[in-house]
Every structure is written in C-alpha cells, then in structure tokens.
Give the backbone structure.
Amino acid sequence: MTLDEFEALEHGAPETVTLEFIGGRLAVKPARDGDHGTIVMSVLRQCMEQRPELGLYTGRGLVVEPDRAGRVRADGALAPLGTFAGHGEWSHPAGVLMVLEVTSRDPVANQRIRSQKRDGYAAAGIPVFLLIDRDQDTLTVHSEPEGGTYRLDPAFPYGAAVEVPAPVGITLDTRPLTSR
C-alpha cells in the first residue's frame, strides 16, 4: 500500500475506526476501554500539573519513520500549548517532547507499539516515548533517540515514582496504575 492509498482510505473511514500506517502496512488501532482512558487521563493530569505550559494532545496524528512515510495516532503527544494550531490531520513531530502509548487487550497491536511504533518515534527524533504496558504492569521510559532507536529504555513496575528525563522533566506517580 502506498501512502496516498492509505490517506484516501483513512479519509473515508468511519469516525469509529482509527487507522495507522507504519512499516508500509495498514493497521487498525484498537478501541480504547475505560481503563485505557483512565490511564491516559492520569498521565495528562500529572503532566499539566507539573508543566502547565505543555499539553498532552490525545489521538494526535503524527508523521513518523525515517522517510516520514509513517502515520500514527499517539495516545498522547506532549508539546507546548498551541504546537498543533493550524495543522491538518497529520503533523510533523517538531516540538513534540514525548509520546505516550498505552497497550490494549490486542496482542498484535501491542507488539506493533513495542517495536514498529517505538522505532518510528525514535526515527522521527521524538525525545521521549513513554510506554504503559498493561500486559507486563510496567511503565517504560524510552529516551535518547539515536540512529532510529532509543538508547535508554528503563522499565518500572506500577507503583513507582518515575522520573521522566529532559526535555519533559516530570515525575510520574504510577500508583494509580496498580488498580488498572
């Protein structure tokens, strides 16, 4: 499938279907359940409390991968307020400090997040990729993108206070995740 074919298909898809294009392949992003939304809201609140000049934009379409041929919808894209004003459906990741992904109950989609999306974010130069993995009950902070991969990727169990490095510079309380 070409990028033009993907964009035509995505444009005609119903609002209830979220399509992504990564690694040259079409993917359907699973529907979010209540726990997923609660986790995203917890991270959003903590980001805004500690860094009120930033917004965690949910479902933002981002252009990723080395050749910028990937199209993904991050669960959250942390950027200065107003970063995406005037943008269309897809934005280049300039100004994005961090992306957030929360795994679903779909093992295929989760594997795509853990590998293809992670690598796409790194190739796009996004400084931090925060992965909340509900299968493993961990929060992984991928940082220092270099050569299409993240150099650092420490994982923390739910319940830990997690320092998210610069340029984000916040501490996430993951205790709310223990009940999810």
In short: DSSP finds three helices and 14 strands in the chain.
